C-alpha cells in the first residue's frame, strides 16, 4: 500500500493553485471540473508520478473549523521535505512567501513554517 493522494483544505482553489505553482514550484497534475469546484492536484517537479496534493475546498463546516483551529494554534496542516532548508527558505522569501518561523534546528532536523495565504500553515523540514 502507498499514499497516492493527500488533501489540503484551502479557502480558494484558484488562489491556492497560483500560490503552490508560482511561489512554491509544484506542478499541476489534474484540474478537473466537479460541479461548483474542481479536482486540482499538484506534484513535486522532481516526482511527477509521486504522491499528489489535492487542493480541497474547505466548504464543509467541519473542514473550515478544523482548518481555522489548527492554524490559530500554530499547527502546520502538512509538511514538505527539502534538501537545503536555508536555500529553500531564501528562495521562498524572494518569492514573497511569509514565514511564521524561520529555519530552526530541533534535534536532528531543521524546520521552518510559512503561511500559504489560503488558510494554512505549512512546515518545511530538512532531515
UniProtKB/TrEMBL annotation:
Ranges for domain VOC: 1-127
Entry-linked InterPro entries: Glyas_Bleomycin-R_OHBP_Dase (IPR029068), Glyas_Fos-R_dOase_dom (IPR004360), VOC_core (IPR037523)
Domain of life: Bacteria
Cross-referenced Gene3D superfamilies: 2,3-Dihydroxybiphenyl 1,2-Dioxygenase, domain 1
Protein name, per record: VOC family protein
Organism: Neobacillus driksii
